[in-house]
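Incident log, entry 3
Record: ABC transporter permease (836 residues)
Problem: checksum mismatch between cached and fresh output.
Input:
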Amino acid sequence: MTGLVLKELWGRKRRLAGSLVAVFLGVAFLTGTLVLGDTLAGSIDGYFSRAYGDTDVTVRNATSVSDAPWGARGQIDAAVLDRVRRVNGVANAEPMIQGSGQLLAKDGTTIPSRGPRTAGNWLTDPKLNPYRLAEGRAPRAPDEVVINKMFADEGKLKVGDRTAVLTPDRVPVTVVGISKFGDEDAFGETSFTAFSLEGAQRYVARAPDRISGVWIRAGNGVSPDEMAARVRPVLAPGTEAVTGKALVDEGMSLVESGFLRVFRIVIASFGGVALLVAAFSIHNTFAITEAQRTRESALLRALGAGRRQVVTIVGFEALVIGAVATLAGLAGGYGFAALLRQLFTQFRIGIAMEGLVVSGTSILIAVPVGLLVTLVAALGPALRASRVPPLAAMREVAAERSGPSDTRMIVGGVLAAVSAGTVILGASAGRMAPAAAGAVLCAVAMVVLGPVAARPAAALVGGPASRLRGVPGALARDNAARSPRRTAGAATALMIGVGVVTLLTVFTGSLRASLEDGVAGSFTGPLVVDGGSNETGGFSPRLAEQAAALPQVGGAAGIGMGNARVDGRPTAVRVADPSRLRTVLDLDVRQGALSGPGTFAVSKKIADERGWRTGSRVAVQFADGARTTLAVGAVYRNADLVGDYLLPRTVWNAHTRQPLDGMAFVRLRPGASTAEARTVLTALAKPYGAPEVETRDEFVSRQTEDMAGFIAVVYGMLVLAIVIALLGIANTLALSVHERTRELGLLRAVGATRRQIRSMVRWESVIVALFGTAGGLGLGTFLGWGLGTAIGNPFAPGPVTLAVIAVAGAVAGALAAIRPARRAARLAILSAIAAP
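Fresh output:
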């Protein structure tokens, strides 16, 4: 049997190559995405492991108000330092201060960063300090700083330059040193400006008796766990001692359960799309070849082979193809991961992924999946081959069933109705779970109904072809309609790829439209001072106060970001003066009123979920450990700009020493010139790091900038899935040309020219491609509407982009037919007629 399989594979090299390429690309795609996830995890783990130097134990505030791995904690009493230093076994202990600190470039502007913008003190113990001096010296005076190399280069700063740091007050400083984080220019994209201890206490901690924590190095023979146990008795309530390993594990756990988990799911899902597309291509290849080998299978049955043996032969053939292609795909996946890493580095996701990491888990996932997908894709054709009666070896038989079965039509129709209804129900009820379940069922229904729709679709799409190209166009239409299962199999792979691209396009458009509607519905003013979306960056609240006093301005209010425990849950909150905010934003207040500077307000969504109303008492805990109870004073509906929780600044400022605004909204006086007001605001903002003064449209565009890079990479990945589908179409046509060798020879014999034969094959490919593209556009648009509506976003399909996708599908179909069409046109007439 093994010899028969190997002989069969080697005798049909064209079919072998098509199957190998499909599996190879699918496995390479999946492996590349898994390796990229491993690499990112390894890079983050490396950063965490080096973030604390050789610190054995850290003393810190025990209150956690954020699920983010780098979430800031409140300050502690500096008196703990002397008590810790007296503990037996402490080799050294240094105070650590860390907070917000935005380094300004040489031209006085804020240096852009996707990572935190922090400032603190330079640790004098090189074993505790994760940074090392690359140039210059450590800071000695309060106005001297060491900056990391990435931001020195970005800000065009060098040793000896004068600049400023916003803490948020503007602090003039002299750069006396440039540091590196180990061998890296920065910790991810974190900006870290190091003052002397005195400078950090004065400008960052803003009090000589407060610090962020204590880093401890244990003496020889004292383990970190033992050191932590010795330190704990001297700590005040509200503080804790944590080993360095526990800090690393804690940070990685938060990353794994948060960002990295989402990243792995998103990135691997595209690998799954590529494998699914490859599976359809493999299935179609085996379906055609098994149909062509009908007489061969029947002859095996006539010679005594059982159905199980026929299935085993086909299964073993698929296993050989899957094994060879999967092994090659592992190597190709490594190269693909290197390409993805380069793309993500170019788009600056915030972590420099140095070197590729391949875990055993990724290999254990990719290898079985590659083999399983190949076997499952070949299972249907294998079972059909085993059912061929022995007598079929003695007579001509139809290669394929000419039309879909009644069962397929009934099952497909029921699936389509149920799935569409589920999506519509989820969208109308605003529930993502049923909408997502319906989306999966919709994809299944499209696959089942593909052969049912193939014949009428071929007639519909092929109509223009027959009118444009005459007889070749009509023959192309009839060829596509003659084998609906084959046409649907080739088109379905493309449909899935185009469907996912369309879904992403519509969903992204919906997100942008939602943001535009949110801004339009909440903010009617023309200008926004935008400090960026980084919660450790921004500008002093004094900027909004000064802006409100300008003669051109009718009102201005700033909004800050932070974290607190609200009702026991770590929560992102917005901070503002509600009485000022209501003068520039319409939050559509449904209960109560933003009546005073101390009003605590929540969104209607949260109020409905928690059963809150005006007057409800809510427990709030701040990063410094302090607890308070706030009464809900207003419930609002428009949460796009202010989030779900709006804390009054009067309450927030009592628990932070560095109040910041991330943005400020400006309303002009009647008759005031927008251009003039923008000029005045830009000048006013310059001492605050020159945050961007934007029009409302520019503000909306900037909010989507961060996702644009990631979406571009995702589009690039999905294009590969579409390429796999087009290779499947090309492979199907090539095998179809081989099957129709005699037919093509007869066409040439009765007068068809080579040009007409090429045209016929090309138009057949275009018809299949348009069928798949149209199905993908319809499916993706419908699912994009359903999923977007389920989360409350308006429908924004982007007709220009969808038109480009449709045209690209037709062009790609023509390109996929180039080689099969050329081969069909070159067939020798007499040899083709004599072919079996």
